[in-house]
Amino acid sequence: MTDKSKSVSRRKFLGSISAAAVAAPFIMNPSVGFASPKNKLKHACIGVGGMGFHDLKNFKEHQGVEIVALCDVDAKNLQKAAALLPNARKYTDWRELLEREQDIIDSVNVTVPDHNHFAIAYRAIQNGKHVYCQKPMCHDVAEVRKLTEASIKAGVVTQLGTQHASGKGDRLAVQWIKEGAIGKIKHAYLCSNRPAAIERYRLPGPRPAQGEPVPSHLDWDLWIGTAPMRPYAPDIYHPTIWRAWQDFGTGWSGDIGCHIFDAVWKGLGLKAPKSVSAKVQKSWKQSSERNTDTWPQGDHITWMFPGNELTEADVFPLEWYDGEFYPPWEIQALYPDKPYPAESAMLIGTEGALLIPHTDMPVLLPENKYVDYKSPELDERNHYHHFVDACLGGEKTESHFAQSGPMTEAILLGTVAIRMPDTLLEWDAAKMRFSDRRANKYLRREYRKGWEVAGF
């Protein structure tokens, strides 16, 4: 970290945050958008490595965007991004960026590990900036609730990084669910069973007994951010494997689950669940070193949601399977003669079934019954560009926080259930607490000293 970035006042960071109505150059209703006087969105990219570089390139491709600032704790990531945008100002510390660019930027994208999402996005929203945030929205349920409320109050444009929600496949699935193509929905089975993901992203743990020197290109203190400090170790935290650790990520269900949930959540208009429970690997459950530090290499989560006019019953069951847990064979058999999609959602209705493969087009089952079923013509849509267009006065975004926040809350309740396996957890959404008080400690973590967020 440079001397300049170190000079950012902790007092300014922890002190009062300017109210959006005062600090923001443009305040808007989320459904309307705002009009920039120059019709150009001045944007800052916070996190430009890995997925962040992908996000940056998508924003760069929109003619209505001018990326004026870049930020990353890894100098190598920053150097690569700066090669694409040599005129953009470079920062190591996101706090410095938001302070120095306050009167310049209109929007930011937050593409960093989950544990730092809230601190950055909340600060940006409080300063009146439009926010595109990678999924999951936050690390903790309480953070999601606060960020959702803040975004609505500030009236800024928001978008969760569920980019496939803007694709033709997910949007068609939402329409088919809403129009009752398979009748009333009885049950949903969601899964993510990529074998490569188990090997690459799901570490068995435990953490190394000894740390190693931090490479000169990485600011480890800034990378740790709100999480408890731990020694640096190569290849298991930065840049990708952080998802396997409870301090930094939300496990596979918190990550890919946001994609698989999305069409089902929107199509059915689901609300907060009544209860959640989970089953996990026996080896993980029996190892205190692992179950207090890493996420399991497989889990099976069951939510019970309130039913509505689109479901068959007053209570609607939704199940999630990942890693070493697979959907029942009788469900996979509904899609015969083809490999069952490793990442997908299957909805069982009173008149048929709907398979929603991740990143592909949905399929009505049995296929011979629906061969003549009409499909609407949908336009191509870029999730990132849709966010930009909304910021410039266009239609509401596909995954704005008022909608995707409650979905993320439900998904993260599943991560709480993982940490208390084989326990039925009844949920009171209004009071934001479980009937089993032991589970409530997982709804909000304690931030590292010096990284507390004012107003939270």
Automatic annotation (TrEMBL):
The keyword Transcription regulation does not apply. Transmembrane segments: none annotated. Keywords: Signal. Pfam families: GFO_IDH_MocA (PF01408), GFO_IDH_MocA_C2 (PF19051). The keyword Metal-binding does not apply. Residues 209-281 form the Gfo/Idh/MocA-like oxidoreductase bacterial type C-terminal domain. PROSITE patterns: TAT. Residues 1-23 form the signal peptide. InterPro entries: Gfo/Idh/MocA-like_OxRdtase_N, Gfo/Idh/MocA_oxidrdct_glycsds, Gfo/Idh/MocA_OxRdtase_bact_C, NAD(P)-bd_dom_sf, TAT_signal. GO terms for molecular function: nucleotide binding. It comes from the Bacteria. Residues 42-161 form the Gfo/Idh/MocA-like oxidoreductase N-terminal domain. PANTHER family: BCDNA.GH03377, NADH-DEPENDENT DEHYDROGENASE-RELATED. This is Predicted dehydrogenase.
